[in-house]
Amino acid sequence: TQVMGPKYIRLPANNREMAHLVKGMEEKYGFPQAFGCVDGTHISIMQPTENPHDYFSYKQKHTINAQAICDWKGMFVDVEIKWRGSVHDGRVFGNSKINRNCQ
Fold first, then answer.
1. For residue range 8-66, what is the model confidence (pLDDT) as tens digits?
2. Which of 25, 1, 41 is nearest to 75 (CA)?
């Protein structure tokens, strides 16, 4: 099985790629110094047999947290799906690869 995600969903690899994204965001939306927009969502899952309470979210169902960043064209540049539904969005972002890279 070939993993396709890294081929199509990836953060800028160098300053030139980052500058291109920043320029696109500013020209299209007027957001200076931004390379993308981040948001989170909950993906519904069946109740797990182990630790089901960890996956029970504020949406009153069992979920997994997903966080994604899109560029000015609406293309994904980063996706992180690994946190249990009970985890707050702030913690998901605080522990994300993109947060570590920005710091």
1. 888 888 999 999 999 999 999 999 999 999 999 999 999 999 999 999 999 999 999 99
2. 25
Strands across the sheet containing 63-70: 37-44, 63-70, 76-84
Q: 69 CB contacts (<8 Å, ≥6 apart)?
A: 36, 37, 38, 76, 77, 78, 79, 98
Of all helices (H) and strands (E), which one includes residue 98? Answer: helix 97-102
Using CB atoms within 10 Å of the CB of residue 65, give its burial: 0 to 12 exposed, 13 to 18 middle, 19+ buried.
buried
Which residue type is seen at 96? S
**Residue 98 — φ and ψ, nearest 5°?**
-65, -35
Please report which residue ranges of 1-75 form alpha helices under DSSP H. Answer: 5-8, 15-29
